[in-house]
Amino acid sequence: MPLRIAQASVAAAVLAVALAGCTSSTSLITKRTQGYEIPASALAQIRPGQSQQLVTLVLGSPQSTNSFGDQSAWYYIETKVEQTAFGLTNVKERTVLAVYFDKNKKVIDKAVYSLADGKVVTIESRRTPSFGEDKTFIDSILQSF
């Protein structure tokens, strides 16, 4: 009988240690930055009148660009996310630096946008049917006979 009590207590201790490792919240969540890290010192160096070459030297190549007639814009995006051990990703913070250029490729303005400045776009779930009707796999097989 004392042997069974000893085995039970060893099993309980092993189980407690195993469960203690599973309950640690720091091991389940990792924090990381995606995209550019936009330092405040680099942001302060960008001023109106500077060339695109100087912006490239300070910030690097843009992640995205856009042109509006005579003007263009470069975008640097920084996203801070938390990812769980199960693969779920949660965006905690997003910063978008937009640098606007004139037709002479000189900085005319810069703007910093956050996650709160974004707008949620709803995805349309309606589908356009093909040939007037949607057929299931079974309907297609039965129609081929």
UniProtKB/TrEMBL annotation:
<dbReference type="InterPro" id="IPR037873">
    <property type="entry name" value="BamE-like"/>
</dbReference>
<protein>
    <submittedName>
        <fullName>Outer membrane protein assembly factor BamE</fullName>
    </submittedName>
</protein>
<dbReference type="GO" id="GO:0051205">
    <property type="term" value="P:protein insertion into membrane"/>
</dbReference>
<feature type="signal peptide">
    <location>
        <begin position="1"/>
        <end position="20"/>
    </location>
</feature>
<dbReference type="InterPro" id="IPR007450">
    <property type="entry name" value="BamE_dom"/>
</dbReference>
<dbReference type="InterPro" id="IPR026592">
    <property type="entry name" value="BamE"/>
</dbReference>
<dbReference type="GO" id="GO:0030674">
    <property type="term" value="F:protein-macromolecule adaptor activity"/>
</dbReference>
<dbReference type="GO" id="GO:1990063">
    <property type="term" value="C:Bam protein complex"/>
</dbReference>
<keyword id="KW-0472">Membrane</keyword>
<feature type="domain" description="Outer membrane protein assembly factor BamE">
    <location>
        <begin position="35"/>
        <end position="108"/>
    </location>
</feature>
<dbReference type="Pfam" id="PF04355">
    <property type="entry name" value="BamE"/>
</dbReference>
<dbReference type="GO" id="GO:0043165">
    <property type="term" value="P:Gram-negative-bacterium-type cell outer membrane assembly"/>
</dbReference>
<keyword id="KW-0732">Signal</keyword>
<keyword id="KW-0998">Cell outer membrane</keyword>
